[in-house]
Amino acid sequence: MDATLLFQLVLNGLIVGALYGVVAMSFVLIYKASQVVNFAQGEFLLVGAWVCWWLLTYWQLPIWAGFLVTLAFMTIFGVVLQVIVLRPLIGEPVISVIMATVGLSIFFQALMKWMFGVFAQPFPPMFTVERISILGLDVQSVYLASLVVSVLIMVGFWWFFTYSKHGLAMRATAFDQQVAQSLGVSVPKVFAMSWAISAVVSSVAGIVVGVVNGVSSALSFYGIKVFPAVILGGLDSIVGAVLGGLIIGVLENVAQYVDAQWLNWGNMYQIAPFYAMILILLIKPYGLFGTRNIERV
Amino acid sequence: MTSMTPAGDFRSTYRADTTIFPTRNSRIAMLVGVLVLCAAPLVLGRYELGLLIAIGYSAIAALGLNILVGFTGQISIGHAAFFGFGAFASALLVEHHVPVPLAIWGAGLMTGVVGLVFGAPAARLKGLYLAIATLAAQFILEDFFARAPWFSGGVSGRVTEPYALFNMRFDREETYFYIVLAHVVIMFVAAANLMRTRDGRALVAVRDHYLSAEMMGINLAYYRTLSFGIASFFAGIGGALYAHYLLFVSVEAFNILYSIQFLAMVIIGGLGSIMGSMLGAAFMVLLPEIVQSGVDLLAGSALDRALRLGSSISFLREMTIGAAIILFLIFEPDGLAHRWRMIKAYWKLYPFSH
């Protein structure tokens, strides 16, 4: 009985962890391209999910149309944020940039609550089959779909950065801005593009979570959960982000299991990733795959 | 940050360089300012005094954060947790029959020790890694408050006693105001003096160039951790004053949004400016009041009905906090203190601005 439960929890952890991985990936994308630590990553999920929900329920658009319009909107949203808020802050100290994204995070969280209320809203049902059983385990089909979407996004990222021209330009910019510029890469464009892609990818994750749990301001907590994941994986490693997301996803589920079985402290699900993060920061601050010396004099 | 002293620097002694008040008039102005504030309870109503008290305890905590962020160049996103720790610690001490005036300072010391513990990563981490570590501290401390009823009273919160000294009870705004004012003066003078000592200048050196600082014989790990301790001490005093004003402390108040408000105070007031912490605290405390009065002004109008302004006032407040942070960072990155110096320089140098 307990083994099955544990197995189920690990599976849940992997599914949620894949989503963390996707969000962490888009976080790392922004960090790599423009050296901005984005505390407003969770708000990308939030805004994307609310916009999609609004299109689907208020305007009664079909799912594919609502989805595409949301993606288009998030592209513009990401670019506009980068151009209006982050571009004037290029060259400012780390704390200014961090605080600007923190300000964005508060602003959009409150704006979304104002526009859509504080209660969780469900998406219209999308799947005809409620649950599927895999290897004798019950899995809700939405969870399965979310796993598929996550994997698709990860493969997309891999293709983008290995083969596409823009992806290569972004890697070049991340490697050395001056060299990239002298080779004809437009650095401002790369910055804007990284924010656009990050916003779009995060919003997809937001929609997936919204379909599973309903859309609410709890979505923005994914933006905080992303920190343990990226710190574990290494701040500037996309592979690390994915792996870190998976590990954190499993860790919080296992922590909850351990807690429920033996400790009875409560709330371990939320807090365990942060304890893990402090440990990692003390032992190996550059993470599993991060560049060793990230801070420059 | 450019110096605003007119045409050259004529200071020729260390004494002149480390003085708190550069001219006699600025010293007199400060004394007059404090005296005017002493008269405030005679003129102002209880509500306005309450706002001044809030500015006072926020300013103390913001000053601590400014020592950490503005003077030492380290980022903390968990200041509200330390503020809350101070509030609970003071309430706990009072419950163990420590008189309130002592409990406030005891709470400050306890919070300072906790700050040293959570500042330990600062010995190893810099910049955004440290920011993320303090973010973790915020959640861990919040979680600790929630699950330690012996300390925080758990979900129901903790009731504490009003400030009492020599058989006088300071439990009304009119009287408690003086207590807060006294603490504000003590803490601000202490901070201004700290920045003149070797330790204070070591902190600034760590901020400006840690490599050079280390070469000059400054122990980086020691001062990085120490500045966390000092910041937490100030936060603890501020939190304790908060506790004995409201007489009730509860876990929910010290969330991450409050931490961000403290950071906003420091940034809006001006990084590395002692007076700036006060200006920033005043700005952040008064901002919701301005929003409130703006909404009251629009109450009943078509705009109000269309946008549901009245019922969503708390969201509007949060939005203005976020917007204020962003706008200040883009348009006035040196904060209100810098603007104030510019205004002073303008009057001093009129009509020749150089």
TrEMBL record, chain A:
Residue ranges crossing the lipid bilayer per the database entry: 9-30, 36-56, 63-85, 97-120, 141-161, 192-215, 227-251, 271-289
Signal sequence residues: none
GO MF annotation, one: transmembrane transporter activity
Keywords, ordered alphabetically: Amino-acid transport, Cell membrane, Membrane, Transmembrane, Transmembrane helix, Transport
Membrane disposition: Multi-pass membrane protein
Subcellular location: Cell membrane
Keyword Membrane appears in the UniProt entry: yes
Entry GO CC: plasma membrane
GO biological process: amino acid transport
Similarity section: Belongs to the binding-protein-dependent transport system permease family. LivHM subfamily.
Name of the protein in its database record: Branched-chain amino acid ABC transporter permease
Species of origin: Neoroseomonas lacus
Taxonomic path: Bacteria, Pseudomonadati, Pseudomonadota, Alphaproteobacteria, Acetobacterales
